[in-house]
């Protein structure tokens, strides 16, 4: 990967000690954590609070209570049927799942994907029998419900504030392989019956960000040709995965006629989850996670898009819609701006009501409005969400592409040009004709550079 320097004598390589990750003194208000033992408990308290139902409004809490009264048996074990979803897993399903897993840090059991990829035929048969027993009985090992959290600081945030850290969850690789098999089965079944919303492009086979980008761009182009304007709202869900309502998801699975072993496994996977936080050599006590799906788990993205599949279901078909996982957008075109604003406000009211019923909350601060138009006159736009006025912007980044209000792409080109200059300068700094990184290394840097 790296070319040797010419004319230089080889020096003995000194063994470098692995740099220990250090965390500063943590503080919230008057509370201070200096020792690692206190830091882990402070982190634990912070991360559990993120998933707490105390984040919900009183109205959302009441709606949850009413729905649970309507579906009192969702926590019960469902009877197994003759559905193809219910059959035991095959060796080909297991091998396919193991082959597709990318290397990452293992959970507390220490079993990694690389180990599983080198298992003998007999070992694979034992693992398959183990998975099928779990599948038949509908009971997961408790260790599969536990995650070891490593706090990683968010860029540009205060190091002393526990809220400035992202919880990276290390969970069992054995569990993740089973998640992969279950995810593939359930996804195939839902795609087969064409259940997903046509505007949901996230985590679906044969779909991607380009579907949503082209849909919006095409509608704006057509509007400009017809001398119309387009009002678009780009949504951001607060704590999207962290606040997913587990019982609400089970209710939606029941409505979907997902039953038997598939239902029982997902219910077991969601309920009774806990976390421990690790800092240095210290590990916290165990804390129960009230809401949400595990970050980094294989099945979480599928469960999430099932939960939000109907977010735009009440909205008039005349509005454009886009979903890519938790990134959502609505737009409406017309010549009469006042009517267009009125139409969009009605759609926002429906989205707001959906959020209350499903235990989510859209971020008013991060939800933005943009008016795509060729009109020269100034237009005042006021739209509200949760009775708070949304910010109007003139450029916005949507699924990696910068849109500007006149669709000139100037902003996008400038951003891409700046990125290219940065990465080229980095590549120049680490390479030369006689030394430095080789072609493969440079290509890797160019590909992964943010």
Shape label: globular
The residue-averaged pLDDT reads 88
Reported for the largest beta sheet, the result is: 5 strands, mixed
Oligomer: single chain
Show unreliable segments: 4-16
Describe this structure in words.
The protein contains 13 helices and 18 strands. Mean pLDDT is 88; it is low at 4-16. The strands form six sheets. Strands 4, 5, 7, 8 and 9 form a five-stranded mixed sheet that branches. Strands 10-11-6-12-15 form a five-stranded mixed sheet, sandwiched between helices. It has 450 residues and is α+β, with helices and mostly antiparallel strands. The longest helix is centred in the C-terminal third of the chain and has 22 residues, at 337-358. Among the domains are: 26-53 and 78-196 and 240-298, no CATH class; 419-448, no CATH class. It is globular and about 70 Å long. This is Reverse transcriptase domain-containing protein. Residues 133-403 form the Reverse transcriptase domain. Residues 1-22 are annotated as: Disordered. InterPro entries: DNA/RNA_pol_sf, RT_dom. It comes from Sinocyclocheilus grahami (Dianchi golden-line fish).
